[in-house]
């Protein structure tokens, strides 16, 4: 079959973690959120990531929950801690979804081998920690097909409300993707925006009408609340066997944002970076240096983890089992919100769910205490409008075009005769390596 090259030039206004929400038509139904924790306060540090023997084991926390189905030794791994510190019977179930994260009509036998109930029997007990916990891990089974999936974890049974859910993706690399990130070409946005150029090579992949049949989704910084679907109507023929994505409005534009703040919680015996005070106890209490608004300051180049975290500690022992839990107090120095709008803390440390800060009239600071495992954590601050529930991610963080961003390109296709879309291509792109 003839080789077909599709050129897509995508103007994305993005940031390295904080930008206006733009989910296009991609959504998660209330029954399949993929990130919910059912409000429990005992399951902590939930991680789902792709891993292969060539990866650095200590850096696996940064890996996306995305895996190539055709790499034999690649796996999806789930890890979490149970702070009740006693054995519990956990089991997992896998739900297949279409590209839009709606539950598909596929029977379980069409995407899984065997019965759709997997017992999570691999657990270890924490060692020499003030807060005891059980650490569970689970290697997900291979799926028969590529696409979108949700992992549901239950206690005692696989019915009712899951303890938590996580999204993951499995792909077959049938289409080539290449691209890069450059400053925005429009002078109006070059200080605050970036431009993502993507090249798609169909090679020998059999597709009759790529403009109609392909579904292209962009994700920013591994955040499923930062998904944008590219409209096929924007694919314009720009030559023999090639297409360009042209923008006729601003619906796919994102703000640039800022690098994340971070705190080093790797030790209780010495102050890590951005630690104000340590109070030893059971558990240890850590106070983070009081934070201020950054949107009115200049850009500061700093490495971060796209709003994520890395579990590690400076003491000896196995990181997963010897890292202790701490009570970590965050404070934000801003004027009291007379409007009633709610300052929030954001990041993977709160599962991207934006937890509300409380105003302390004695200190005149907004405060939030979180139970966190030892490690290095990114975080930021947002403002929730109480009238329309919208989250403002710019007010405290600002927008700078130099912000380090990660993008992922997902391409879905529903071949003739198939009952659901397949994930036929995936690529991660960064503006800095």
Automatic annotation (TrEMBL):
Gene3D superfamilies: Immunoglobulins
Domain of life assignment: Bacteria
Domain Type 9 secretion system plug protein N-terminal: 43-171
Family matches, as InterPro entries: Ig-like_fold, T9SS_Plug_N
Pfam families: T9SS_plug_1st
Record protein name field: DUF5103 domain-containing protein
């Amino acid at each position: 079959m003839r080789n077909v090259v599709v050129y897509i030039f995508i103007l994305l206004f993005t940031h390295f973690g904080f930008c206006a929400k733009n989910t296009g038509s991609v959504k998660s139904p209330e029954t399949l959120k993929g990130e919910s924790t059912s409000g429990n306060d005992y399951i902590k540090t939930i991680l789902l990531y792709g891993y292969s023997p060539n990866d650095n084991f200590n850096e696996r926390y940064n890996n996306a929950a995305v895996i190539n189905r055709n790499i034999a030794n690649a796996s999806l791994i789930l890890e979490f801690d149970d702070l009740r510190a006693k054995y519990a019977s956990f089991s997992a179930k896998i739900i297949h979804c279409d590209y839009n994260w709606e539950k598909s009509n596929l029977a379980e036998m069409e995407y899984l081998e065997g019965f759709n109930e997997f017992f999570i029997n691999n657990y270890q007990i924490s060692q020499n920690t003030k807060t005891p916990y059980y650490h569970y891990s689970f290697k997900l089974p291979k799926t028969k097909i590529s696409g979108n999936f949700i992992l549901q974890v239950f206690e005692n049974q696989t019915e009712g409300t899951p303890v938590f859910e996580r999204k993951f993706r499995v792909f077959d690399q049938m289409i080539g993707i290449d691209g890069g990130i450059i400053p925005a070409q429009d002078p109006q946005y070059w200080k605050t925006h970036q431009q993502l150029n993507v090249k798609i090579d169909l090679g020998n992949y059999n597709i009759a009408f790529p403009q109609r049949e392909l579904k292209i989704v962009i994700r920013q910084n591994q955040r499923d609340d930062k998904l944008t679907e590219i409209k096929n109507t924007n694919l314009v023929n720009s030559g023999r066997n090639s297409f360009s994505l042209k923008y006729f409005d601003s619906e796919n534009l994102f703000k640039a944002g800022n690098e994340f703040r971070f705190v080093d919680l790797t030790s209780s015996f010495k102050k890590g970076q951005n630690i104000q005070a340590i109070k030893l106890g059971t558990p240890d209490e850590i106070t983070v240096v009081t934070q201020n608004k950054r949107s009115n300051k200049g850009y500061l180049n700093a490495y971060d983890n796209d709003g994520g975290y890395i579990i590690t500690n400076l003491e000896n022992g196995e990181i997963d089992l010897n890292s202790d839990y701490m009570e970590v107090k965050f404070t934000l120095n801003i004027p009291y919100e007379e409007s009633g709008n709610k300052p929030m803390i954001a990041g993977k440390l709160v599962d991207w769910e934006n937890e509300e800060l409380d105003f302390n009239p004695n200190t005149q600071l907004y405060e939030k205490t979180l139970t966190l495992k030892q490690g290095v954590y990114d975080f930021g601050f947002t403002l929730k409008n109480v009238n329309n529930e919208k989250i403002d991610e710019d007010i405290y963080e600002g927008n700078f075009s130099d912000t380090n961003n990660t993008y992922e390109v997902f391409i879905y296709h529903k071949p003739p005769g198939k009952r659901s879309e397949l994930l036929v291509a995936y690529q991660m792109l960064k503006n800095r390596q």
